[in-house]
């Protein structure tokens, strides 16, 4: 039985009520919502509650604010959201996805391809020129001995800056409890190596990020796919049954803006998740690379915020929010700190010293939060544009998620439209997409499609979505 969750706050309930009216067609695209004063009187709440509800709906792409005019139902609201929790086979399975994934992703690596299937945001969204100047200035002053000062855990200056980011978000993580890595993928691989052995089973979401499946395959591990809701993440009742019956060695989950669904696990559910895993002594490898890309009022807490037993191994990086290509990530491995640090020392020794120094200096100079606010605004606007284009061009039965952050949409195509076929036909028109079967160890989600809205919206993007819509319409 699923543990009870906290009741929704009044503004959340109000937003859900309005969203239900939009989905039911009572409120249609272009309709004006009641003014804040009218809504406050009608629902017997204060104006602040109405504003919070409208902001929440705006973040979900359901309504749009027009200056000096009010709030209107967005065109993208005509799209229904996926509602069904996945129902995977929960028996563990040996993973064999590498060739399939690589063959599909080759199409995203060409500059002449519209990158709707890419796993990366546009480099145009990042302050790369300022970072380059910072690196040039920092390298000139770099102590030659710095490359060997912190081999096993990384730059002390950078770890202090990362610890400060945790503190800003209300988490106490000591700088000495962090290991700097070559991107988040190395952090995640190190965590797997620390808590598993070949032949062990690891829980993943369904669908899950294909790189997680590739990591399991490389280490000779088995995958257990667990039922996952498109808005709220992994189902705890299903997970509890798997933990009891199969005793997996670890869980690899994204609790914030999961790739590919964009789901955001509610904080009460994260707390329940951590407590459930603690009862079984099961480590959680938490992939939180999208946590800074939220569209709401504050950063959603990671599961690590509720960890009292050192079982949550929190992994993140600067690749998705500041410095793609610098390959600087980190992990807060909890009770597995020494194991992870030794594994790092015995494999890649250290991350790039100049890149570590440059990012530490950039963070010390200030301006990171200003950059993040601008980045989030860009991503939210690009999501709006893509959802509106999908609503215009795709078949009416198409469903699309409306994530509250990140830069991925998950589409459920209408019956009869196969994602792999759409991928092949789109590739012939120099458009990349990420088809659903690469996000499953069993090649499921035949009608699933992940699209990347992390690139500035322009005529080429609009034309690509329109072409996809035509292909999906037959």
UniProtKB/TrEMBL annotation:
InterPro entries: Aminotransferase_I/II_large, HTH_trans_reg/aminotransferase, PyrdxlP-dep_Trfase, PyrdxlP-dep_Trfase_major, PyrdxlP-dep_Trfase_small, Tscrpt_reg_HTH_GntR, WH-like_DNA-bd_sf, WH_DNA-bd_sf
Coiled coil: none
Domain of life: Bacteria
Keywords of this entry: Aminotransferase, DNA-binding, Pyridoxal phosphate, Transcription, Transcription regulation, Transferase
Listed SUPFAM superfamilies: PLP-dependent transferases, Winged helix' DNA-binding domain
GO molecular function, one term: transaminase activity
Start and end residues of each HTH gntR-type domain: 8-76
Family under the similarity heading: In the C-terminal section; belongs to the class-I pyridoxal-phosphate-dependent aminotransferase family.
UniProt name for this protein: PLP-dependent aminotransferase family protein
Organism: Dokdonella ginsengisoli
